TrEMBL record:
Record's keyword terms, sorted: Pyridoxal phosphate
Residues annotated as signal peptide: none
Domain Aminotransferase class V: start-end pairs: 27-353
PANTHER family for the chain: HERCYNYLCYSTEINE SULFOXIDE LYASE, L-CYSTEINE DESULFHYDRASE
Protein name (Swiss-Prot/TrEMBL): Aminotransferase class V domain-containing protein
Gene3D superfamilies, alphabetized: Aspartate Aminotransferase, domain 1, Type I PLP-dependent aspartate aminotransferase-like (Major domain)
């Protein structure tokens, strides 16, 4: 199966690509649709951007809204999840004494965003340390709720964490935040296409996710979702033709007839919208190839590889399997120079995989996508065993 699927992708033959989680990989049919939009744009830029764009942009909004079970007026395309979350974070009007409650598993770019906002506003970040290994929902949720105070203004959580590849059970924490008048802001960078996602049922105030990762659209396609009740709080990062003076008045429409939330964020100067326009093609590719069934196979392969590595290292996993991202697992490895191991895996073995240190744990973060195979997992385990002398360590541990 993996060999047949690999032919749909544009990845280099000389690289064993085990890092779908960082930037994704776009299937050839979807990429060809992307290029066709670009050719249409360059063939008649004024027609494409001046007369057709607003109708073109409506199509991916509607397709994604159907996929994620939300209103098409409540979701808007952005460049990436970091951009979407910056729109939210920089719009919330925080003030001295306000607290942002988050965890110690967040993506570094967003940690920096919160640091920037706190420097400007006098607000402060409160970090809840998630007990590890993560084995129960209550273990996570009770820890988060215990960190809420009368000063907590924002709950900021990753749905799937970047450094530790954990699937956080965020539902109950979001509900509790709502009951206390706390805004819930969710980093869903790794979530769309990775797990089934129902934004209406989840009920987060703000949710931003990437389409270019596990949904497999081209880079530069992501979304911001906001509940209708909170959309009026948001300001675009760039003021352009989508903005109107009346946009904050009740019942106001944006400059192009959509909600101000859509028009102000969607229209921010001249850009190439082709990646976002390709989202319906990515959804269709997944549907036509029964990708949720493929994802189940990938999950089994990821967990099996993690189990095998754990047997070699003797190190415990970061979580129970149900709290690991389905197709991505952060695997503890023995203490080492992670930068050197990362470089050696690529330069000597042609294996692309993140190897880094998170807190006091050295980690190799494995992603398994439909183009990967069991022989590639064997190759990775053999290469890492050689670099870290895992066989020698195991024999020494056994006496």
């Amino acid at each position: 199966m993996s060999e047949n699927l690999a032919r749909h992708f544009l990845l280099r033959d000389d690289v064993t690509f085990l890092n779908h989680g960082s930037f994704g990989a776009c299937p050839r049919p979807v990429f060809e649709t992307y290029q066709q939009f670009q050719l249409e744009l360059e063939g008649e830029p004024v027609e494409f951007l001046g007369r057709r764009l607003h109708e073109l942009l409506r199509v991916p909004r509607e397709a994604l809204a159907a996929e994620l079970n939300c209103g098409s007026e409540d979701i808007v395309g952005v460049l990436n999840a970091t951009t979407g979350l910056n729109i939210v974070i920089q719009s919330l009007g925080l003030k001295p004494g306000d607290q942002i409650l988050t965890t110690d598993h967040e993506y570094s770019a967003l940690e920096k965003t919160w640091d920037y906002i706190c420097r400007r506003t006098g607000a402060e970040v409160v970090v809840a340390k998630v007990p590890m290994p993560l084995t129960t929902e209550a273990q996570f949720t009770d820890t988060v709720i215990a960190g809420m105070t009368e000063r907590t203004r924002v709950l900021f959580l990753s749905h799937i964490t970047s450094p530790t590849a954990l699937l956080f059970p965020i539902e109950r924490a979001i509900t509790e935040a709502r009951s206390r008048g706390i805004f819930s802001v969710i980093d869903g960078a790794h979530t769309p296409g990775h797990i089934p996602l129902d934004l209406t049922a989840l009920g987060a105030d703000f949710y931003s996710g990437n389409c270019h990762k596990w949904m497999m659209s081209p880079k530069g396609s992501a979304f911001l979702h906001a509940r209708p009740e909170v959309q009026g709080l948001l300001n675009p990062l760039v003021i352009s033709h989508g903005w109107t003076k009346q946009s904050r008045e009740p019942g106001a429409k944006g400059a192009f007839g959509n909600s101000p939330f859509i028009d102000e964020i969607e229209i921010q100067g001249t850009r190439d919208p082709a990646a976002w326009l390709t989202v319906p093609a990515a959804i269709a590719f997944r549907r036509d190839n029964d990708w949720w069934a493929i994802a189940d196979h990938c999950r089994a392969l990821a967990q099996e590889t993690a189990r095998r590595l754990g047997e070699l290292t003797g190190l415990s996993p970061l979580s129970a399997p149900e709290f690991s991202a389905p197709q991505m697992v952060a695997m503890p490895i023995p203490e080492c120079d992670t930068a050197a191991v990362h470089a050696a895996l690529f330069e000597r073995y042609g294996i692309e995989i993140p190897v880094f240190k998170w807190q006091e744990t050295c980690i190799a973060r494995l992603s398994v996508q439909g183009y990967n195979s069991a022989p590639q997992m064997d190759k990775f385990l053999a290469a890492l065993s050689e670099l870290l002398e895992l066989g020698t360590r195991q024999r020494a541990a056994q006496g």
